[in-house]
């Protein structure tokens, strides 16, 4: 049996989506077991996941939160941003003790995808996780679950983007230095689905990762069932600045 305190990224996603989901669920369960084994009291975990214990929660509905994201992107793409007009000193004072993000975004680590700028949002509005290829791992899921269970985010957007180097590398499948190849297994289901078209593979990957998150995380799936959360996939075109939601 694998050590419950560590994860092998290769186990998280296999060549088939079904195996990916099964392995991911195993890894997430192992992670939770590791947390309990590390000495975190059960009542503390219950408090974290108790909807009544949410520390800060937006009044927006999931649909309204998604609309706010997309309205912000339209402002950005048209050059009419407003976030920069906020007084940052006042914002910083307001955010010292708490944060109230209305949305979470799982983005690629690519430096050309500055999430807050792309959605014309200022400090404290977005809960952002970033990893090459915008893939789901136990650490990413744990972070997004925190955003949902504790911060009360209403929408999670998994955001792929044009000219994604991680997807291009996975499509090429060539030898790469260090541990970069550990990304390949997570991206392989999208490559299998879309073939050598890396743009199509990027979009497929965003949808696959969003579905995986929706089904593998009980925190996320329960909030979706209760109508308190939406999980969507999107594609950011670096050239135009436009984010398109993927069905």
Radius of gyration: 18 Å
State the total count of DSSP E strands: 5
What is the assigned CATH homologous superfamily? Answer: Carbonic anhydrase
Regions with pLDDT < 50 over 5+ consecutive residues? Answer: 1-56
> What's the CATH architecture name?
3-Layer(aba) Sandwich
Q: What topology, given as strand order, has the largest sheet?
A: 2-1-3-4-5
The sequence of SSEs as H and E is HHHHHEHEHEHHHHEE
Give a written overview of the molecule.
This protein is an alpha/beta fold and 247 residues long. It has a single domain (55-246), classed as 3-Layer(aba) Sandwich (Beta-carbonic Anhydrase, Chain A), CATH 3.40.1050. It is 49% helix and 11% strand. The chain is built from 11 helices and 5 strands; from the N terminus they run H-H-H-H-H-E-H-E-H-E-H-H-H-H-E-E. A 5-stranded mixed beta sheet has the order 2-1-3-4-5, sandwiched between helices. The longest helix is centred in the N-terminal third of the chain and has 21 residues, at 17-37. Residues 1-56 have low confidence and may be disordered.
SSE diagram, text form:
Layout: H1 9-12, H2 17-37, H3 42-49, H4 62-77, H5 88-95, E1 103-107, H6 115-118, E2 126-130, H7 138-149, E3 155-161, H8 165-172, H9 182-194, H10 198-216, H11 218-225, E4 230-236, E5 243-246
Parallel strand pairs: 1-2, 1-3, 3-4
Antiparallel strand pairs: 4-5
Helix pairs in contact: 2-10, 8-9, 9-10, 10-11
């Amino acid at each position: 049996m694998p050590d419950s305190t560590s994860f092998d990224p290769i186990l998280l996603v296999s060549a088939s989506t079904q195996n990916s989901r099964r392995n991911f669920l195993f890894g997430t369960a192992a992670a939770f077991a590791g947390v309990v084994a590390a000495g975190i009291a059960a009542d503390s975990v219950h408090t974290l996941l108790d909807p009544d214990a949410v520390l800060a929660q937006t009044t927006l509905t999931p649909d309204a939160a998604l609309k706010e994201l997309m309205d912000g992107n339209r402002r950005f793409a048209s050059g009419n941003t407003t976030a920069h007009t906020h007084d940052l000193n006042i914002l910083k004072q307001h955010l010292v003790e708490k944060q109230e993000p209305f949305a979470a975004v799982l983005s690629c680590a690519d430096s050309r995808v500055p999430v807050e700028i792309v959605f014309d949002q200022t400090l404290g509005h977005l809960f952002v996780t970033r990893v090459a290829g915008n893939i789901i791992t136990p650490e990413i899921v744990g972070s997004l679950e925190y955003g949902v269970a504790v911060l009360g985010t209403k929408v999670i957007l998994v955001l792929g983007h044009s000219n994604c180097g991680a997807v291009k590398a996975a499509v090429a499948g060539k030898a790469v230095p260090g541990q970069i190849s550990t990304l390949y297994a997570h991206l392989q289901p999208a490559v299998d689905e879309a073939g050598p078209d890396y743009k199509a593979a990027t979009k497929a990957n965003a949808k696959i990762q969003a579905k995986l998150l929706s089904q593998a995380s009980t925190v996320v799936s329960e909030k979706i069932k209760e109508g308190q959360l939406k999980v969507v996939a999107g594609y950011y075109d670096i050239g135009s600045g436009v984010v398109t939601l993927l069905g």
